Amino acid sequence: MPDAPRKIIHLDMDAFYASVEQRDDPALRGKPVAVGGSPQGRGVVAACSYEARKFGVRSAMPMARALRQCPDLVIVRPDFTKYKEASQKVMAILRSVTPLVEPRSLDEAYLDVTENLLHEPLAMEIAKYLKARIRQELSLTASAGVAPNKFLAKIASGWKKPDGLTVIAPERVESFLQKLPVEALWGVGPVTAKKLRAIGIEKLVDVRAADEEKLRRTVGSLAGWLKRLSYGDDQRKVTPDRPWKSISAEDTYPEDLVDLREMRAEIERLARRVAAAVAKKELYARTVTIKVRYANFTTVTRSHTEEPATRDAGIIARRALWLLERTEAGKRPVRLLGIGVHGLSNAEQSHAARDLLEPLALPRR
User: Fold this and answer.
1) Cα separation of the two ends of the chain
2) Burial level of 199, CB count in 10 A (0-12/13-18/19+)?
3) From the CB of residue 26, how many other CB atoms can be counted at a distance below 10 Å?
4) What SS3 string covers the chain?
5) N or C: which terminus of the chain has fewer CB atoms within 10 Å of its end residue's CB?
6) Each residue of 86-135: pLDDT tens digit?
């Protein structure tokens, strides 16, 4: 039987640099903003707000030209330290759902959520969850595309910007492809699109019927790739940019939790969810961390490290519950609970540590 379709999300932050500047400086909100160099020199627009885009301002445009098109444009020098910090927080939110996160830049990433730490079967619901957390925790917006592969997810994320969500279900792939111009093909820019139109290829699906030799003469080694994409065929996997350093899961509750027994049940449920993910990846964890956010948004974390590393669900849950007792849960209402495991190692590394160390007892109350 054929493999089940993958569930891929492409998440793209909206006007990222400009949005961070508008978030941090209320005076910039609602105004046309361009982040970039000086118009007096050879400065260019690195990013611009949607208010500026209404005047035709675009990324990579000379700043002097942008200012001519929008005389009221507010120019802000870029602060990449600030953007990187915001990006790291976005990526941390994405990795709380799946370790299969492939950042493409500071403001976009692919996620494979075919299996995920939320145990949510609908990728659309995961995309909604991520967008809501980014808005709530970072005061920024993101657009998301959900599809069976990276090519389609990338197109979908740009379909309804800003703050958009577009889902291309497997049964809708063909009807979606029929709508697309040839520029939608990955690797086809304005110059290549002009060449393709010169041989009669106007729409993406026109590539399918193109003469093989003529297509090869026009786009060279891209020919086979474009032919596959014209059928929506993209087998590339989401490749994480780093080995798994942590696996976590958390939930924000629609109503604050006030009963300690309910909090303990939630912590145990989250701990067992994380432990299952650790076991599935054939890893072991040394450190267990819990996160508790109270009703007033104050957030605390508690961690416990123990050798040897483990992936036993019962042990991880027991340690998480012990950490919960080191917080004010039960005395203060709680709006969010989270569990994370760190210090991950494979079986060989874990067994080597076990040979060297006697297991350490869990600290007693």
Assistant:
1) 54
2) middle
3) 8
4) CCCCCCCEEEEEECCHHHHHHHHHCHHHCCCCEEEECCCCCCCEEEEECHHHHCCCCCCCCEHHHHHHHCCCCEEECCCHHHHHHHHHHHHHHHHCCCCCEEEEECCEEEEECCCCCCCCCCHHHHHHHHHHHHHHHHCCCEEEEEECCHHHHHHHHCCCCCCCEEECCHHHHHHHHCCCEHHHCCCCCHHHHHHHHHCCCCEHHHHHHCCHHHHHHHHCCHHHHHHHHHCCCCCCCCCCCCCCCEEEEEEEEEEEECCHHHHHHHHHHHHHHHHHHHHHCCCEEEEEEEEEEECCCCEEEEEEEEEEEECCHHHHHHHHHHHHCCCCECCECEEEEEEEEEEEECHHHHHHHHHHCCCCCCCCC
5) N
6) 999 999 999 989 989 999 889 999 999 999 988 899 999 999 999 999 99
Sign of CA dihedral 260, 262, 267, 271: positive
d(CA 16, CA 230): 30
Nearest Cα to 63, choosing from 83, 91, 40?
40
List active site positions. Answer: 108
Amino acid type, 246: S
The two tokens of residue 326 are 């080191």
Contact indicator for 337, 292 with CB cutoff of 8 Å: yes
Q: Per the confidence metrics, is the pTM higher than 0.70?
A: no
